[in-house]
Design goal:
The complex is a heterodimer of chains A (about 110) and B (about 110). The model of chain A has no long low-confidence stretch (mean pLDDT about 95). Helices cover about 0% and strands about 55% of the residues of chain A. In chain A, strands 2, 4, 5, 6, 9, 10 and 11 form a seven-stranded mixed sheet that branches. A four-stranded antiparallel sheet of chain A has the order 1-3-8-7, with no helix packed on it. Chain A is an all-beta fold. In chain B, the strands form two sheets. In chain B, strands 2, 4, 5, 9, 10 and 11 form a six-stranded mixed sheet that branches. In chain B, a hairpin with a 2-residue loop joins strand 6 and strand 7. Chain B is globular and about 40 Å long. The model of chain B has no long low-confidence stretch (mean pLDDT about 95). The chains are: A mainly beta (about 110), B mainly beta (about 110). Chains A and B meet through strand 4 and strand 5 of A and strand 4, strand 5 and strand 10 of B.
Chain lengths: ~110, ~110
């Protein structure tokens, strides 16, 4: 398995633009998590899905953020409009039912100018 | 919800010394406590974990201890090597999601 695949690896955009981050979980994993990493706040849980259904989105910072999982092989995280304070590394992670171990992707580094 | 505090935020040691990172958690229902290592430009990877029915676990140069009464757990790395330099995260799980500490940047100088 290629692991958790995230794209793009790096994104530089201007304030006000829409940003879309993508994730392909490990095949067979039915939990998918989105985390955001910053120096100040560390690794924050944004949202997680089980069997493509959002279970807990209490970590999503505001309405500008949205996430979907249209099928078991794909999830996206959108920010619209983006702001400089959204600059961070966004990680996607997945795990199987009954398992505790999270497998993380390599992350998407977002810079909003 | 769960809150995890991690200390120190940075740690510098000489090669061969030991390193200790400490975490506390708030939710007494948490029963799983993993440690992840993040190398530069990569996602975090699990290095060791411990469950609430165990007080200590070792894997070669790495050990974790858990004190459920005090709600704290620690990572111990002995005989540190330059390749141990990375960011280390502790986490706690009550339910499905892992809640992470803010991380410790460990630097091992030779």
């Amino acid at each position: 398995d290629a692991g958790v695949i995230q794209s793009p690896r790096h994104e530089v955009t201007e304030m006000g633009q829409e940003v879309t981050l993508r994730c392909k979980p490990i095949s067979g994993h039915d939990y998918l998590f989105w985390y955001r990493q910053t120096m100040m706040r560390g690794l924050e849980l944004l949202i997680y899905f089980n069997n493509n259904v959002p279970i807990d989105d209490s970590g999503m910072p505001e309405d500008r953020f949205s996430a979907k999982m249209p099928n078991a092989s794909f999830s996206n995280l959108k920010i619209q409009p983006s702001e400089p304070r959204d600059s961070a590394v966004y990680f996607c992670a997945s795990k199987g039912s009954g398992a505790n171990v999270l497998t993380f992707g390599a992350g998407s580094r977002l810079t909003v100018l | 919800g769960e809150n995890v505090e991690q200390h120190p935020s940075t740690l510098s040691v000489q090669e061969g010394d030991s390193a200790v990172i400490k975490c506390t958690y708030s939710d007494s229902a948490s029963n799983y406590f993993p440690w992840y290592k993040q190398e530069l430009g990569k996602g975090p990877q699990l290095i060791i974990d411990i469950r609430s029915n165990v007080g200590e676990k070792k894997d070669q140069r790495i050990a974790v201890t858990l004190n459920k009464t005090a709600k704290h757990f620690s990572l111990h790395i002995t005989e540190t090597q330059p390749e141990d330099s990375a960011v280390y995260f502790c986490a706690a799980q009550a339910g499905t999601a892992l809640i992470f500490g803010k991380g410790t940047t460990l630097s091992v100088s030779s």
